[in-house]
Description:
heterodimer; A: alpha/beta; Protocatechuate 4,5-dioxygenase, Chain B; 8-stranded mixed sheet; two-stranded antiparallel sheet; 10 helices; 10 strands; 36% helix; globular; B: mainly alpha; Protocatechuate 4,5-dioxygenase, Chain A
Amino acid sequence: MTATGPASGTVQGRVVGVFATSHSPGMTGFPERADAAQRDAVHDAFAELRCRIQALEPDAIIAVSVEHFSNFSLANLPAFAIATAGSYLGPVTAEMAAFLNIGQRRYPGHADLGEHVYRFALESEFDPALVQGDFEFDENFCVPLEFLDPRSRIPLVPVVVNGVNRPAPTPRRCYEFGRMLRAAVAAQHSAPRVVVLATGGLSHWVGMRESGQINESFDRDFLGRLSSGDAARLTDYRQEQIDEAGNGADEIRTWLVAAGAAGTGFDILTYEPVPAWLTGTAVAAARMP
Amino acid sequence: MYAVHKLLWDIRREPALADRFRSDPDALLDDYGLTGRERDAMRGLDVKSLYDAGANPYLLYFCALQLGMPRQDYYARIRGERP
């Protein structure tokens, strides 16, 4: 159980850092196929992010991504979900572990923070699905965390946004969900220092005819909006515009959650359109006040 | 399309179902209530027809891989470059 609301005499929770990255399987699974300069730029940006996260000494990471039908199905597909388990298996199968070149393990969960965020979301008139267990990771969390917390020490609260089957939540709703997450963190003290990490995107096509293409102009425009921190510009997307960057670009919704949680602009640590990884690959960090 | 999506998802999740699909597809397709064009397309793993009919690309692609279709074949087929 976790106290909600302002608690006198205790440290209020705070979002100390907000980051967003791609989660392309190629980054861990087949890095050698990418152009060396691009690969190094991406890996260097992840190394920089790992240092920043370490320096922040977070008590928990709220990790926001999609899930690629590893758990949910069209029998029950949440628009948003919050997981509150004590641990999570990932990668989901030995087969996927081999494909991603990431050893299977159990990632720690921050159940108290997860339960609090779930309750706070409902009190804030959001209606996420509750996921108390049997939730497993695919590349969504495993790939970025392999760079950012390779020993899997920081407890996680996974948050899932539907980005794999349309229709999906509106950009504005995603941004507002992120604002709610920041308020939720401030209304508890079980995890005083919290990092928000969003993963997904940018342009890519999964299982579609266009697979292998990258929409660099879409990506750079999106990163420009993200850098500005201008909520109106960030959320000014129609689905048809996102379509131009592929079904994988639906995952920018996770970045919009991060932008809402940050409430400020982002520094773009790297952007590389990497054909060998089939993805416009970026790493970004919010300029926290 | 729901029955197709359910079967695509189940095959990926359940290796025994993939084996059944290979060894006795008609019985499996009966179990899922698949009829008509959807049944024909699924039976022949005609990914282009399923793709054109609006199957979710993630579910279709993952299931095809699970059933042993090489990535390049999948993409060549949905692009109509290979029957």
